[in-house]
Amino acid sequence: MPNKSSIVAFLLSFIPGAGHLYMNRVVRAILYGAGFFGPLFLMFVGAAFFHMRDDDILIPLFLFALFVAVINMIDMIVYLLRYQPYPGPQYGPQYGPHGSPYGAEPPYDHAPAWEPNPYAVHAASQQERTRVMLLSFIPGLGHFQLGLMQRGLTAMVSFFGVAVLVFFITMMTNNDSFVAFLLAMPVLWFYTMFDALKQQERKQDGLPLIDRSLFDDFHFGDDSGRKNRTLATIIAIFPGAAHLYLSMNKRGIQLMAIFLFSIYVLDVLRLSLFFFLIPILWFFSFFDGLQSISKYENGTLVDKPIVENWSAYHRSIGFVLILLGGYYVFKEVIVQFLYQVFPHANYMYWLNNFGQTLIVAVILIGGGIKLLLYRKTRPVHSKEQHTDSDPSQVYLEINEKKNPF
């Protein structure tokens, strides 16, 4: 019987019973296939023909099918870890050629009586690679197989720690939006799997394996104190974080504050019409962070804030803050007091339907009027000022205006 591929069998195991059928384990293939597809078929028949909508019957059938699928995958992984499709090392002849004395010839007159089979050596390395890949299905186990205990422990704690932390915060805050952070788990899973395969390749190449934490690969800086490009690119996913890492405190804090404040205001005031601004702010911050990384490596990085002169906008910012503060005081204090005095009046209906609309309309109309009345005044420079100034400074000023970044 030709050798079966362990990788193909593992991939087919995502269909319960198919992997076992590929490995000629017919009985297990029938059991797992019937145990998985049987309940699903009963659910379909019950919902389509008998109009069953009772969750007390459908949910147990679905959970049983899921349980069978998990057991099928675990059984296949255990079988593949024990599966050795390749023959052991072959040995040379134990007897002498025709006409030689009885028995083997003396060992001191000839070379060793056995030689390793190159095909068997290659097969053993391939089998070890398959074993590491299968164990890496659970983050950290592949590193444990290679003897990298600290690296495997870091991978396992990081993967399951993210899941526990997200579920804990979701339950404590009763806010399902935190579940979106579970999208980091597939990234960690793929990273730990390919890292284990990379370490196995280093072992086959004869290179030494260094047992250190995964976080030690991201050097936070070299001996000269320079920042790491890889780490800066990763944390640039969150607006302003890469700028703060590159010591651009003014620009980073402003980007982070604008992004978070925009989400907060749009969510509280229920302004779904302006939610398109959130992706625009995110992409601007991300690509601006990548440009800042390149400028940092070139030595041309300047911490230039988004809004350079806050004092010029203090009246507008103060007006918006007072308006929002008054809205919250009116909603949380005055309206509740009116409910106590007039319990039958529906103040919250009027407030939710007209209060937020009025605030947004006032802000937009006020901003539009200010833009209409705004006139930019340009200072008039005399020829004497240009002649007295250094030509290099004049060139730098013009070039900075053309390329402010």
Question: Which descriptors apply to this entry?
Answer:
disordered C terminus; mainly alpha; 64% helix; 405 residues
Explain the overall architecture.
Helix content is 64%, strand content 0%. The protein is mainly alpha-helical and 405 residues long. The chain has 4 domains: 1-85; 129-213, no CATH class; 218-308, no CATH class; 318-375. Helix 5 runs antiparallel to helix 8 (184-204), helix 7 (149-173) packs antiparallel against helix 8 and helix 11 (249-268) runs antiparallel to helix 12 (277-298). It starts with 5 loop residues before the first helix and ends with a helix.
Topology:
Layout: H1 6-12, H2 18-22, H3 26-48, H4 55-82, H5 118-135, H6 141-145, H7 149-173, H8 184-204, H9 229-235, H10 241-245, H11 249-268, H12 277-298, H13 314-341, H14 347-373, H15 383-388, H16 391-402
